[in-house]
Amino acid sequence: MPQIYEKRTYSVTVGQMAEVTRLYSSQGWPALEAGGFGKKLIGYFISDTGELHQLIHLWRFESDDDRRAHWKRLFEDPDFMAFAKQLRPLVRSQNIQLMLAAPWGPHP
Q1: Which of 27, 29, 30, 92 has its CA 20 to 30 A from that of 38?
Q2: Sign of the alpha-carbon dihedral angle for 65, 66, 71, 76
Q3: Would you tell me how many other CB atoms lie within 10 Å of the CB of residue 14?
Q4: Would the pTM count as exceeding 0.85?
Q5: Cβ 98 vs Cβ 4: under 8 Å
């Protein structure tokens, strides 16, 4: 089965990106790394043109079962959930897009 890529886009309340960045740097990313969750991460990105105030992250999973197990374990992690509780009020909306690699060209 082909790998699944997941694109998560969080629209951040205008004026709150600095706080989101601080929270991810000091709590979110350390919790992800400590729990071994960062292994499936391709990268985090902050929009610079187009629709602004967006935090975008890309993930790679071996299957849908792998993806679901990853998020289930992460949402059971107390350190990550303490971070998420602080992050949620700063996020206006969340969009999740699942993608399959095209059969040509490079893949991450």
Answers
A1: 92
A2: positive
A3: 9
A4: yes
A5: yes
